[in-house]
């Protein structure tokens, strides 16, 4: 459907027949990241106007599903993994290995296409930072966040997520 496709075209702008045809012809790759790490990253990048991480989390919880920010919206509400059968799900922290495998499966030379990724090196930093930020939250905020991201935690294997507990 190239006559209707532009970089700004949303999938929802197509009818069901067109959507099924497009999704059947593409290799679908979903990149996922632990929701708590997404919150930390958003806060660290200054995308929230809150002075502390705890108040930022409270703003996120208060805005809930009605928020327009994709930075902290649950992934399942953005990517619909129950409706779209993704060919690959790539986890943050394993980009180099997983993209190498993906390129190899596509028959492309692996080393010439992959840039240097820092996600593997920052895993330890995020683990430490997650622990510090998690301590800042009240028990109620922790429970609310776990509930807010419950479908992400159920859909993806974030085994070390602080929100899984």
From TrEMBL:
<dbReference type="InterPro" id="IPR018011">
    <property type="entry name" value="Carb_sulfotrans_8-10"/>
</dbReference>
<keyword id="KW-0119">Carbohydrate metabolism</keyword>
<comment type="similarity">
    <text>Belongs to the sulfotransferase 2 family.</text>
</comment>
<dbReference type="GO" id="GO:0000139">
    <property type="term" value="C:Golgi membrane"/>
</dbReference>
<keyword id="KW-1133">Transmembrane helix</keyword>
<protein>
    <recommendedName>
        <fullName>Carbohydrate sulfotransferase</fullName>
        <ecNumber>2.8.2.-</ecNumber>
    </recommendedName>
</protein>
<keyword id="KW-0735">Signal-anchor</keyword>
<dbReference type="GO" id="GO:0008146">
    <property type="term" value="F:sulfotransferase activity"/>
</dbReference>
<keyword id="KW-0333">Golgi apparatus</keyword>
<dbReference type="Pfam" id="PF03567">
    <property type="entry name" value="Sulfotransfer_2"/>
</dbReference>
<keyword id="KW-0325">Glycoprotein</keyword>
<dbReference type="GO" id="GO:0016051">
    <property type="term" value="P:carbohydrate biosynthetic process"/>
</dbReference>
<keyword id="KW-0808">Transferase</keyword>
<keyword id="KW-0472">Membrane</keyword>
<dbReference type="GO" id="GO:0050655">
    <property type="term" value="P:dermatan sulfate proteoglycan metabolic process"/>
</dbReference>
<keyword id="KW-0812">Transmembrane</keyword>
<dbReference type="InterPro" id="IPR005331">
    <property type="entry name" value="Sulfotransferase"/>
</dbReference>
